[in-house]
């Protein structure tokens, strides 16, 4: 039986090759894949192609880059969602991992150990690991080992100390072909360099001669290898001189070519294109008052890192690009150097007893560092001499960084994690260990990138950055050429993917740098954490029991124990009570990673999926966690240039230049230093709040005990939240202070749905009201007549007067000018009119802007920097109404034109009030209490989040929070009444947005069908004759190797599983919902039921996700999350389209999802843009294209169908198709949607039952009656189908596989999308 599995390999898109690129051996990762193992190396060391170089479409870069802000042609292509789709092999097939180059965990762990041994110069151990891999894993090495890994191994011999191990290097070089690898230009460069370093110039010359004889590589290709270092040109010149006496004609020609290439490559004049810096940074920071400190350790380290700005300026570094690199490259060194400096300063003053004039916590942490550093150094020495298995695993990684840096990383990471994961005064052990290991890995990668970047590669990056900074890279002809070059470099890199879902290559040059698997991170983090627990002590006041004198004892600062979290027994690292008390005064929970700051220059452009963001770190454009399938789709889409428009949109967002709003900053600083509660700044804590009194029946009544414990928890949470919020504000104030005189940029990436987010977490425009109030555009534009009007409307909106016509809003501002002037002149001591706003800091910023404009005497010529917001009306419902042509829904969310803005929240509140009035008239006691009390505010959050999948429990909590704010509702009735109202809100929404409900039902039903389906190949793969079918389709040695590996894995997998059938599909149900957005972004829903893997560490046995375990999808989450995720993807598509179109029109643009920002003068232009792009998006047959894509993508997939057999009848007469439709009907799917807002009574009842079970588990955990589950993660959502198993007992069923089909789309309504053009309040 011949199976078409090989065709799945051939579905992988092929990369076309340039004619001048030498074709070398193919990657051994998938049959029929045309990806090169190693294209020519010139791409990676060569300078950027000149402007005259022809590009793909026949134009020249110089022709398109003539203007400073050239127009974008990216939006000229039609926006469709019906083509450019990527289909990869199904994850249930072992062929998926082979074809997609996904490393098995055991190979990934061995590779990282090999890599660490090489980088730590332990080549004896590295050689043993390499030998063992080729001996014990020959098939895997054929598939996954490539030239990048082998070249790094050879380089290890060359970099050996005190001299290169040339003999071993040459031996392994000669064995390459034995291992089915062909030397490339980099290989010859490495081996030649090794012999030149050892003064073996004759041997080096012979190696180059062999290359000339046996290959087509040129000397220039060798000299442009990234494995060569700055200064190596002297070695080549000496090689030429040492061999000039050789009279052989071949040698003379080779030396002549080498000399010419050496002069060409190493004597390149610096690029003439100067870096076009946006601004010259001020020579010194302005004299700004210091912010009252929380004494937070995290804030202190942030301050120390930000001091790099001032120190660098004083040292003469004023080039923004170089300054940005310096800030990124110096991370933990700043903290370490600052501590050392302050220690020496204190000792110089003679303060030898106190050691350091620091806060108590900082002094203690310094003592920990002093004790921990030698312990780490001793452990490294033990690892070198020990044969213990664990030390052999983690030892090489400890040698990558100095002990001093490892110590600082460990201390900072553990302190940062305090109070995380729902653990009071501690953290989960598993998370702590993995995070410490990940922090070590991140620091190593930063050091490596800094060390490996040559002068030429840095100059090349600067040139690309200069093009982006000047706006020339937004010319799509030039941009596509740069993307083509980046993709060629990417193709030359051996990008493997681990089963953790992370990519292996992390260097711009494409050199091998494997991601550390979670087990490796856990082991490295374990040894460092255990050493810290041993070293860290804290002074504790005590009393001598014999003398009664007061003494100070040193007790452990941390200890390891177990604790119940959400009813499950979890290993935790606990902070001692004394350390916890100290932290209550100096919270460090939110320690900022020092690299994640705003940038001084525009970010690196996203030319490929993993080539943008910060200058010195490699990152990918999408935030992905535990989803290797998403990584593979994203990478393939980038290679095929499907992501052009998405990546350009991210670049537009990152190119917006920001500035701190100085007047608002001054007020925030004054308010902060006062210690009072102002706006969202909490007050300074006055000590621990008193606990409530215990009830008299505390010891006898479990319910009374639970109620008291909940009150105590609420009190403690309030106290901790105040500390955390003040610390958060402190971070924002310190960051803003450092950037007062400096423009800044926010690099962006996106989540898996395509929604864009700034990468810097502390200060950005997606932050809270305080963040947004602090930020303004760096570029100012005259208001003009239109801009002055929009500025006034903006202030009215912020002050809550946003449900009136635009004219009424303008009048509102003019009527309140006295209040506005007072707010600007006396913000803290006046009437505080601005504090009446829900967004007070943004309102204050607008007050300053309006006041300045009016007082200028000529408002229309006033240059304004304030971003003006245009917000969609419940944007998710706008997309639903457009998709369904829902006229009533369109009118409710301002898609249709009207004289005044429609308010969907008010509309829902009115419908709920009508329902309540009717039931109150019938005597319903709940309705009687709530009659006349249902306001817009109560229902707003639930309506807003409904379209994005809020659960009934979540909606009840939202409404409960609002009801608690009312004094006229009994507190003991709030919880019950919130549930009553949630049902009414859902019912009203279902009635108002009937078209949206039908589309939502179709999306849910389709996702449920997909999640239950299995490809036909998987079913046939369980046939005993599969091997013959695979062999019949193998046409080459590469095919045969991969096929044999696939067959072996299938048999191994099949033997471990239970019988596979339609009755028991089991772990093979691994089909994720995958779709392509209208901009070509492939989206994979990541919801799977992950398996656990036990990892023994020094602290405890921890359970981490097992990437190699079969991971069936969570069918329930796949179906319930698809509608909101799909709408999010459309929302993101509209935003990115609008961003690119605004850039084309010359507008500054920023967004907070469905809130779009620009200068006041440009609001009218932006309004036209966002309407045009919304129409352009929804003119396309989005739903039809989605259904077509599903049919094409899941062609040949089967779903298991079960039919009950009547007792007196052996077989049913209904068709299989009818039964399948019955089984997967939209009504049934709708009943099982627990997460959707349009919920039925059955759904609500089911959620309440689940909630009750959760509360019972919590009660049981408090009294210690829960079964132990060591280090368990949060509970997974259960598939509702599992609950029906008991109901089927005693009945007989037939089970079969049927074709996967999809329901017809619901009929579209009569709303005309073109009406959006005439709607003044579409965005307002």
From TrEMBL:
Keywords, in A-Z order: DNA-directed RNA polymerase, Nucleotidyltransferase, Transcription, Transferase, Transit peptide
Lineage: superkingdom: Eukaryota
Keyword Nucleotide-binding: no
GO cellular component: mitochondrial DNA-directed RNA polymerase complex
Domain DNA-directed RNA polymerase N-terminal: 322-655
Region (Disordered) location: 52-72, 1265-1291
EC nos: 2.7.7.6
GO biological process, one term: mitochondrial transcription
Pfam family membership, one: RPOL_N
Entry's Gene Ontology molecular function annotations: DNA-directed RNA polymerase activity; mitochondrial promoter sequence-specific DNA binding
SUPFAM superfamilies assigned: DNA/RNA polymerases
Enzyme class: transferase
Annotated catalysed reactions: RNA(n) + a ribonucleoside 5'-triphosphate = RNA(n+1) + diphosphate
Compositional bias of kind Acidic residues: 1267-1281
Keyword Transcription among UniProt keywords: yes
Record family assignment: Belongs to the phage and mitochondrial RNA polymerase family.
Protein's job: DNA-dependent RNA polymerase catalyzes the transcription of DNA into RNA using the four ribonucleoside triphosphates as substrates.
Name under which the protein is recorded: DNA-directed RNA polymerase
Organism this protein belongs to: Umbelopsis vinacea
């Amino acid at each position: 039986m011949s199976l078409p599995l090989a065709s799945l390999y051939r579905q992988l898109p092929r990369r076309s090759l340039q004619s001048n690129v030498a074709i070398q051996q193919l990657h051994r990762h998938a049959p029929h894949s045309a990806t090169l193992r190693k294209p020519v190396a010139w791409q990676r060391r060569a300078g950027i192609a000149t402007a005259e170089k022809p590009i793909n479409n026949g134009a020249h870069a110089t022709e398109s880059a003539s203007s400073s802000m050239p127009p974008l042609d990216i939006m000229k292509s039609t926006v469709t969602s019906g083509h450019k789709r990527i289909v990869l092999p199904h994850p249930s097939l072992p062929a998926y991992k082979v074809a997609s180059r996904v490393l098995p965990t055991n190979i990934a762990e061995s590779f990282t150990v090999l890599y660490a041994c090489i980088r730590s110069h332990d080549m004896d151990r590295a050689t043993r690991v390499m030998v063992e891999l080729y001996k014990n894993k020959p098939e895997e090495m054929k598939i996954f080992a490539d030239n990048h890994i082998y070249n790094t191994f050879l380089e290890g011999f060359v970099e050996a100390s005190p001299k290169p191990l040339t003999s071993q290097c040459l031996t392994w070089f000669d064995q390459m072909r034995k291992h089915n690898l062909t030397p490339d230009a980099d290989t010859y460069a490495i081996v030649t360099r090794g012999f030149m370093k050892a003064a073996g110039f004759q041997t080096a010359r012979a190696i180059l001669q062999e290359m000339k004889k046996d290959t087509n590589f040129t000397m220039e290709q060798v000299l442009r290898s990234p494995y060569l270092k700055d200064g190596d040109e002297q070695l080549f010149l000496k090689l030429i001189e040492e061999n000039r006496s050789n009279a052989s004609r071949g040698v003379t020609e080779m030396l002549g070519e080498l000399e010419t290439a050496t002069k060409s490559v190493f004597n390149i004049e610096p690029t003439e294109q100067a870096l076009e810096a946006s601004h010259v940074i001020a020579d010194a920071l302005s004299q700004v008052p210091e912010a009252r400190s929380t004494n937070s350790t995290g804030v202190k380290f942030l301050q120390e890192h930000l001091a790099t700005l001032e120190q660098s300026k004083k040292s003469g570094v004023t080039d923004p690009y170089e300054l940005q690199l310096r800030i990124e490259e110096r991370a933990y060194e700043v903290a370490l150097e600052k501590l050392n400096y302050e220690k020496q300063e204190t000792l110089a003053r003679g303060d030898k007893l106190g050691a350091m004039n620091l806060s108590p916590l900082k002094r203690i942490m310094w003592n920990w560092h002093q004790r921990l550093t030698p312990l780490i150094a001793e452990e490294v020495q033990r690892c070198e001499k020990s044969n213990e298995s664990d030390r052999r695993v983690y030892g090489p990684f400890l040698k990558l960084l100095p002990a001093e840096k490892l110590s600082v990383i460990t201390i900072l990471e553990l302190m940062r994690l305090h109070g995380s994961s729902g653990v009071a005064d501690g953290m989960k052990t598993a998370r702590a260990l993995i995070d410490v290991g990940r922090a070590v890995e991140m620091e190593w990668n930063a050091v490596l990138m800094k060390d490996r970047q040559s002068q030429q590669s840095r100059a090349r990056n600067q040139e690309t950055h200069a093009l982006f900074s000047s706006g020339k890279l937004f010319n799509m002809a030039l941009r596509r050429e740069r993307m083509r070059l980046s993709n060629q470099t990417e193709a030359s890199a051996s990008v493997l993917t681990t089963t953790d879902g992370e990519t292996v290559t992390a260097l711009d040059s494409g050199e091998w740098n494997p991601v550390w698997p979670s087990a490796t991170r856990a082991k490295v983090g374990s040894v460092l954490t255990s050493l810290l627990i041993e070293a860290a002590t804290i002074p504790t006041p005590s009393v001598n029991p014999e003398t009664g004198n007061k003494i100070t004892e040193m007790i452990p600062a941390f200890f390891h124990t177990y604790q119940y979290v959400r009813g499950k027994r979890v290993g935790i690292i606990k902070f001692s009570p004394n350390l916890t008390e100290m932290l209550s005064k100096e919270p460090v929970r939110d320690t900022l990673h020092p690299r994640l700051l705003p940038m001084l220059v525009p970010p690196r452009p996203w030319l490929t999926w993993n080539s943008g963001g910060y200058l010195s770190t490699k990152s990918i454009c999408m935030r992905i966690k535990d989803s290797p399938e998403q990584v593979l789709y994203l990478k393939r889409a980038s290679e095929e240039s499907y992501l052009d428009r998405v990546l350009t949109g991210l670049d537009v967002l990152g190119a917006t230049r920001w500035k701190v709003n100085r007047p608002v900053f001054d007020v925030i600083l004054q308010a902060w230093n006062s210690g009072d509660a102002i706006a969202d700044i909490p007050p300074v804590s006055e000590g621990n709040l008193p606990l409530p009194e215990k009830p008299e029946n505390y010891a006898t009544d479990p319910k009374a005990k639970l109620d008291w414990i909940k009150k105590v928890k609420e009190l403690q949470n309030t106290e901790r939240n105040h500390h955390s919020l003040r610390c958060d504000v402190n971070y924002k104030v310190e960051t803003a202070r450092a950037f007062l005189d400096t423009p800044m940029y926010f690099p962006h990436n996106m989540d898996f749905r395509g929604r864009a987010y700034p990468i810097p977490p502390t200060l950005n425009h997606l932050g809270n009201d305080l963040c947004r109030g602090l930020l303004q555009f760096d570029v100012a534009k005259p208001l003009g007549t239109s801009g002055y009007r929009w500025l006034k409307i903006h202030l009215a909106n912020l002050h809550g007067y946003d449900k009136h016509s635009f004219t009424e809003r303008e009048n509102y501002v003019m009527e309140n000018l006295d209040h506005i002037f007072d707010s600007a002149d006396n913000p803290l001591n006046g009437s505080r009119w601005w504090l009446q706003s829900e967004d007070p800091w943004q309102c204050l910023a607008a007050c300053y802007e309006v006041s300045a404009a009016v007082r200028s005497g000529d408002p229309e010529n006033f240059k304004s920097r304030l971003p003006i917001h245009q917000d969609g009306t419940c944007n998710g419902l706008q997309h639903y109404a457009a998709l369904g042509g829902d006229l009533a829904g369109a009118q409710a969310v301002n898609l249709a034109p009207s004289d005044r803005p429609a308010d969907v929240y008010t509309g829902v509140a009115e419908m709920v009030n009508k329902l309540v009035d009717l039931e109150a008239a019938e005597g319903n006691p709940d309705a009687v209490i709530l009659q006349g009390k249902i306001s817009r505010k109560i229902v707003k959050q639930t309506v807003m989040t409904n379209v994005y999948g809020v659960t009934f429990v979540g909606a009840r909590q939202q409404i409960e929070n609002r009801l608690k704010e009312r004094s006229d509702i009994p507190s003991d009735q709030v919880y019950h009444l919130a549930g009553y109202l949630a049902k009414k809100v859902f019912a009203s929404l279902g009635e108002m947005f009937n078209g949206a409900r039908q589309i939502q039902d179709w999306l849910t039903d389709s996702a449920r069908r997909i999640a239950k389906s299995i490809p036909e190949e998987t079913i046939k793969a369980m046939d005993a004759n599969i091997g013959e079918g695979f062999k019949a389709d193998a046409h080459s040695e590469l095919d045969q190797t991969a096929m044999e590996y696939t067959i072996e894995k299938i048999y191994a997998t099949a033997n471990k599983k239970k019988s596979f059938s339609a009755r028991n599909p089991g772990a093979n149900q691994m089909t994720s919902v995958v779709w392509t957005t209208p901009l070509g972004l492939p989206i994979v829903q990541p919801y799977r039921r992950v398996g656990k893997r036990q990892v023994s560490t020094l602290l405890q046995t921890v359970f981490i996700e097992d990437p190699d375990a079969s991971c069936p999808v969570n069918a329930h989450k796949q179906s319930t999350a698809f509608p909101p995720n799909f709408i999010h993807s459309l929302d993101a598509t509209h935003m990115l389209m609008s961003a690119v179109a605004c850039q084309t029109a010359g507008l500054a643009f920023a967004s907070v999802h469905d809130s779009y920002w620009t200068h006041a003068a440009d609001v009218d232009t932006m309004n036209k843009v966002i309407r045009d792009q919304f129409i352009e998006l929804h003119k396309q047959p989005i739903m039809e294209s989605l259904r077509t894509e599903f049919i094409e993508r899941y062609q040949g997939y089967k779903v298991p169908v079960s039919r009950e057999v009547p007792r007196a009848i052996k077989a049913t007469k209904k068709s299989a198709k009818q039964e399948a439709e019955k089984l997967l009907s939209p009504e049934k799917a709708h009943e099982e949607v627990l997460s959707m807002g349009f919920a039925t009574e059955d759904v609500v009842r089911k959620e309440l039952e689940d909630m009750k079970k959760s509360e019972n588990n919590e009660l049981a955990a408090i009294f210690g009656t829960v079964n132990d589950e060591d280090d368990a993660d949060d509970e997974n959502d259960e598939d509702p189908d599992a609950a029906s198993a008991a109901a089927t007992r005693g009945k007989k069923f037939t089970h079969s596989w049927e074709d996967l089909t999809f329901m017809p789309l619901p009929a579209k309504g009569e709303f005309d999308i073109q009406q959006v053009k005439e709607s003044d309040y579409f965005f307002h």
